[in-house]
């Protein structure tokens, strides 16, 4: 014991005396409280109990321990305990920097370097009542305040298997502009009580004041002033809801053709897609020429195989079965031509504004012909099918890859945060990651999924990572976060197999992969391929016609993290030219 | 560029021209004119060392006129500087024959150029074009997206990316709208200050009385928002030159924030009507025409050196709509044989076949598009198939219910 004390005292030359005092306390057998202290402790314990009320279950010992820690500050103790025992809220880390606390910090950080000192740390605060438990809480606090983040060294895959977590799925909502994507999702969230009546009423009022009352549900998703004043979604809106079996993430995509890059970013994070189609006269037809078609091709080329088609605004055609069947037929013909498999497509009639057949059955007597499930049920079915095909574990075993979808300031505590979908692999707090192409490492300080703190995440989830030890200039949208041991390679020139939607010849194109958006050029047309066998049919063609499959060489303006097997989209002059699969 | 003096024999093209570059663009012309093996005479500063009888070495910088035989040239697009390297070709009291020198051509300083193997038709045309002071269209353009802005200047013969502004803008996020708005504000303010620095309004308006049009292009509403921000700032700071600029600002739609979408902006009808007569707009329109013909795939549009030469051989690039599109990059070829090949092709199309020849500037977007196609393309008067000599083994496609390879 004394040996440890000497070791620790080295750093505290300036208050040697204090340190010796402490040593004496310890020799007294850990009971250094004076009569006054005890009296004060007793009074305060009662006060804290009152402050906490019956809702929080805390033992006297825990209260006293915290009181000692906060120097009998009743208010702080109560807040601390409340937060600690209400698990949904993050722990308050803003500790008052008092003398002893900071000295613990120093001790802890030195302990991190020297394992011998660890036992010293534990022995040190034994003079306090219920010291052992306090050590735990102090330990936690110090770990979070030092720049180095301690990893729990979990076997994330094991944890994931054990956790029996609800299955997770994210879906992108696509469709032509003004077909009611945002409104439908606003309705869904409202009916599932994710947003309360009051907020909706408030939005309704605001929408009315600028004469767009029918937009109020869309405003749940469209939050920026620009989106509200123009009445269109500009960027992906993310939201969450839960059913009995599944935790869903909504990615509400913009329908306007100018914002297709944002839609691509959303679609790249989705497991399946909900295609919203306006059933009212002419709208469907306009959409089919416009973004309904392009979005379908895009999600398909990004690997989304399953579609739930919400035939929206059915109330405007008085739930006509004829119209519904007509639309279904036309869409089915188009989608099968676009290489979707018929059994992976579900059609659901609904009305977003009134909310019929979104979460509840249709009340309208005209819709008696429809007997199948609601939109949410269709979503569940889709998730089931997806999980059957590809269980999470398989992709979680691969090395980590995550495309950065957003870089932002997560608050005072978390100056740099990123979010995005984990494509493959797992992550836990304390992991070191590498951001490419900057090739800079960072440490994960905290992880959040759907605004809740978690210890680990697996492929398929869309977490927010709070980072430490990295400068934000190294993080850009579209960068890839990967395992430092298996960094993603950077390429400037690659060959890809592509399916042309428009004529392709050597020309300037924009290359898209998730949020990544880069300038590039189609340099060579190497050959036309047979669609099914992949054999070269014609070498060095002059032009690739829509619908043909070809192998081309693309040269990028700068080096980017693109790996073989990545799906990319090539666009030029505002339209999608081709979808490609990288070969290397 | 001003032609001070020229003595060029029309028959064999021998002779020289003395030129005075007056603005930055003239450097680009000079760069295109000056070829390896040409003789260039210009004012130069050279350090001359003299060894005196006692053996001490004195070095001195002197200004003198040097004639060099060009070996290579180097052009910096951003600053418009042209360095021409070569060997001294005429005896001089300070400099030995055959020693190396690099001439830095400067504005307002004349130089004399003598072609090594005579002035060919392309060079003569270039000379004429360079000295044509009539059309001096200039346009500033900002192609922008969320957090990215490319500030370019478009002149008759070049598109120069002056500066690129990149500001990280956090995306829309639940409860995090503040970050987005703040970053956008910052992005606009930096873009504006960068733009103003590049435009140099204070000086420009003092020199010329015409205002240079400014084009803002973006996908979505960003250009529009930026214009209103610019207007607001101009009023707030009562920046008079900027306020004067406001009426000549155009807002257009582009599909991406990258420079190459400028071609799409400039081919849009609204912009074309205001820019109708610039070389840029004409070239863009021509490339668009070529692309649409290529898409029709009826064998009337061909690209690539071999294919185009073959088409010319077959007489398909002739009277009645035959157009040869060629990038001036080909004429800058360091290899003289290579240059002769293209000059020969141009002469043939123009004089023998009677077709139209368009030389596109490799510094414009249209030239860049042509570069992708191998720097040369042709619109034919009649369809030709299989110029690429490939056996089209388009076997019957197996339409099975199999998964496609992609």
Report on this structure.
The complex is a heterodimer of chains A (584) and B (406). Chain A is of the alpha+beta class. Chain A folds into 4 domains: 2-145, no CATH class; 167-389, 3-Layer(aba) Sandwich (Rossmann fold); 395-482, Beta Barrel (Elongation Factor Tu (Ef-tu), domain 3); 490-582, Beta Barrel (Elongation Factor Tu (Ef-tu), domain 3), CATH 2.40.30. In chain A, the strands form 4 sheets. In chain A, strands 7, 8, 9, 10, 12, 13, 14, 16 and 17 form a 9-stranded antiparallel β-sheet that branches. A 6-stranded mixed β-sheet of chain A has the order 2-3-1-4-5-6, with helices on both faces. In chain A, strands 18-22-20-19-23-24 form a 6-stranded antiparallel beta barrel. In chain A, a hairpin with a 7-residue loop joins strand 8 (406-408) and strand 9 (416-419). In chain A, helix 3 packs across helix 4 (60-69). Chain A is globular, with a radius of gyration of 29 Å. Chain B starts with a strand and ends in a 27-residue tail after the last strand. In chain B, the strands form 3 sheets. In chain B, strands 1-2-7-3-4-5-6 form a 7-stranded antiparallel β-sheet, covered by helices on one side. Chain B has a 5-stranded mixed β-sheet with strand order 10-9-8-11-12, covered by helices on one side. Chain B has 12 helices and 16 strands. By secondary structure, chain B is an alpha+beta fold. Chain B is 33% helix and 28% strand. At the A-B interface, helix 12, strand 2, strand 8, strand 18 and strand 20 of A face helix 3, helix 9 and helix 12 of B.
Largest interface: A-B, 66 and 49 residues
Number of strands of chain B: 16
Mind describing the biggest β-sheet of chain A?
Answer: 9 strands, antiparallel
Secondary-structure-based class of chain B equals: alpha+beta
Q: Please describe the biggest sheet of chain B, giving its number of strands, its sense, and whether it closes into a barrel.
A: 7 strands, antiparallel
Radius of gyration of chain B: 26 Å
Low-confidence stretches of chain B are 390-403
CATH homologous superfamily of the largest domain in chain A? P-loop containing nucleotide triphosphate hydrolases
Instruction: Give helix % range of chain B.
Output: 25-40%
Query: How much is the average pLDDT of chain A?
Result: 79
Return the CATH architecture of the largest domain in chain A.
Answer: 3-Layer(aba) Sandwich
> Which spans of chain A of ≥5 residues are poorly predicted at pLDDT below 50?
5-30, 88-102, 114-126, 142-146
The total number of structural domains of chain B is 3
Question: Looking at the structure, what is the overall shape of chain B?
Answer: flat
Family (chain B): Belongs to the eukaryotic release factor 1 family. Pelota subfamily.
Organism (chain B): Clohesyomyces aquaticus
Subcellular location (chain B): Cytoplasm
Main location (chain B): cytoplasm
């Amino acid at each position: 014991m004394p040996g440890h004390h000497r070791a620790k005292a080295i750093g505290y030359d300036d208050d040697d005396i204090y340190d010796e005092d402490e040593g004496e306390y310890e020799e007294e057998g850990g009971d250094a409280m004076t009569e006054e202290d005890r009296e004060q402790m007793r009074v305060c314990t009662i006060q804290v109990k009152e402050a906490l009320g019956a809702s929080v279950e805390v033992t006297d010992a825990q209260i006293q321990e915290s009181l000692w820690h906060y120097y009998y500050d009743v208010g702080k103790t109560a807040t601390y305990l409340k937060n600690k025992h209400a698990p949904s809220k993050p722990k308050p880390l803003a500790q008052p920097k008092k003398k002893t606390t900071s000295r613990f910090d120093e001790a802890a950080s030195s302990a991190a370097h020297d394992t011998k000192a660890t036992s010293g740390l534990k022995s040190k605060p034994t003079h306090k009542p219920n010291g052992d438990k306090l050590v735990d809480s102090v330990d936690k606090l110090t770990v979070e305040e030092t720049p180095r983040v301690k990893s729990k060294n979990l076997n994330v895959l094991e944890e994931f298997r054990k956790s029996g977590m609800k299955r997770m799925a994210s879906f992108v909502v696509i469709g032509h502009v003004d077909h009611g994507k945002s409104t439908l999702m606003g309705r869904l969230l409202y009916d599932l009580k994710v947003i309360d009546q009051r907020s909706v009423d408030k939005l309704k009022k605001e929408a009315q004041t600028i004469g767009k009352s029918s937009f109020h549900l869309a405003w749940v998703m469209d939050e920026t002033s620009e989106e509200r004043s123009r009445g269109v979604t500009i960027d992906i809106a993310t939201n969450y809801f839960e059913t009995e079996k599944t935790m869903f993430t909504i990615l509400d995509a913009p329908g306007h053709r100018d914002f297709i890059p944002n839609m691509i970013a959303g679609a790249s994070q989705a497991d399946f897609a909900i295609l919203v189609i306006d059933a009212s006269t002419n709208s469907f037809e306009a959409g089919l020429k416009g973004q309904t078609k392009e979005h379908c091709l895009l999600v398909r080329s990004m690997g989304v195989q399953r579609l739930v088609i919400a035939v929206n605004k059915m109330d405007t055609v008085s739930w006509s079965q004829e119209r519904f069947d007509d639309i279904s037929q036309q869409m089915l013909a188009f989608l099968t031509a676009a290489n979707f498999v018929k059994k992976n497509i579900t059609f659901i009639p609904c009305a977003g504004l009134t909310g019929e057949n979104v979460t509840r059955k249709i009340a309208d007597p005209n819709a008696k012909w429809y007997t199948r499930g609601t939109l949410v049920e269709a979503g569940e079915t889709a998730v089931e099918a997806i999980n059957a095909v590809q269980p999470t574990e398989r992709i979680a075993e691969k090395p980590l890859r995550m495309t950065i979808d957003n870089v932002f300031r997560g608050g005072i505590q978390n100056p740099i945060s990123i979010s995005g979908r984990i494509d493959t692999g797992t992550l836990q707090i304390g992991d070191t990651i590498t951001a490419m192409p900057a090739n800079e490492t960072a440490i994960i300080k905290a992880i959040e999924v759907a605004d809740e703190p978690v210890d680990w995440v697996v492929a398929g989830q869309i977490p927010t990572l709070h980072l430490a030890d990295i400068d934000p200039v190294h993080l850009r949208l579209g960068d890839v976060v990967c395992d430092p041991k298996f960094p993603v390679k950077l390429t400037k020139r690659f060959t890809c197999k592509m399916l042309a939607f428009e004529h392709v010849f050597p020309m300037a194109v924009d290359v898209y992969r998730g949020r990544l958006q880069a300038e590039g050029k189609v340099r060579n047309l190497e050959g036309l391929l047979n669609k099914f066998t992949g054999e070269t049919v014609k070498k060095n063609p002059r032009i690739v016609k829509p619908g043909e499959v070809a192998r081309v060489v693309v040269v990028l303006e700068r080096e980017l993290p693109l790996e073989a097997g990545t799906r990319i989209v090539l666009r030029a002059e505002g339209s999608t030219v081709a979808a490609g699969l990288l070969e290397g | 560029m001003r032609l001070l003096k020229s003595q060029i024999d029309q028959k064999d093209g021998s002779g020289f021209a003395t030129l005075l570059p007056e603005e930055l663009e003239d450097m680009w012309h000079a760069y295109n004119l000056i070829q390896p093996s040409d003789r260039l005479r210009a004012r130069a500063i050279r350090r001359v060392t003299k060894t005196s009888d006692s053996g001490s070495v004195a070095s001195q910088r002197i200004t003198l006129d040097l004639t060099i035989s060009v070996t290579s040239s180097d052009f910096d697009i951003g600053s418009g500087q042209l360095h021409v390297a070569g060997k001294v070709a005429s005896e001089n009291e300070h400099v030995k024959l055959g020693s190396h020198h690099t001439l830095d051509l400067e504005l307002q300083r004349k130089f004399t150029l003598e072609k090594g193997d005579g002035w060919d038709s392309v060079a003569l045309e270039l000379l004429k074009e360079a000295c044509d002071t009539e059309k001096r269209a200039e346009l500033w353009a900002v192609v922008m997206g969320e957090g990215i802005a490319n500030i370019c200047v478009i002149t008759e013969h070049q598109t120069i990316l002056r500066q690129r502004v990149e500001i990280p803008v956090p995306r829309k996020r639940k409860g995090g709208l503040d970050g987005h708005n703040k970053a956008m504000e910052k992005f606009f303010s930096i873009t504006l200050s960068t733009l103003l620095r590049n435009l140099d309004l204070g000086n420009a308006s003092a020199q010329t009385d015409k205002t240079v049009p400014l084009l803002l292009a973006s996908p979505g509403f960003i250009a529009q928002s930026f214009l209103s921000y610019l207007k607001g700032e101009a009023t707030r700071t009562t920046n008079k030159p900027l306020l004067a600029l406001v009426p000549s600002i155009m807002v257009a739609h582009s599909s991406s924030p990258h420079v190459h979408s400028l071609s799409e902006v400039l081919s849009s009808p609204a912009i074309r009507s205001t820019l109708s007569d610039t070389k840029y707009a004409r070239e863009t329109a021509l490339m668009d025409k070529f692309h649409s013909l290529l898409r029709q795939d009826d064998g009337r549009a061909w690209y690539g050196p071999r294919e185009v030469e073959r088409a010319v051989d077959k007489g398909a690039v002739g009277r009645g709509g035959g157009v040869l599109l060629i990038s001036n990059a080909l004429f800058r070829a360091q290899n003289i044989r290579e240059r002769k090949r293209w000059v020969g092709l141009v002469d043939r199309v123009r004089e023998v076949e009677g077709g139209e020849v368009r030389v596109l500037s490799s510094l414009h977007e249209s030239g860049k598009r042509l570069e992708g196609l191998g720097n040369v393309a042709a619109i034919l008067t009649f369809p030709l198939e299989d110029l690429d000599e490939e056996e089209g083994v388009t076997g019957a496609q197996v339409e099975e219910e199999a998964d496609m390879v992609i």
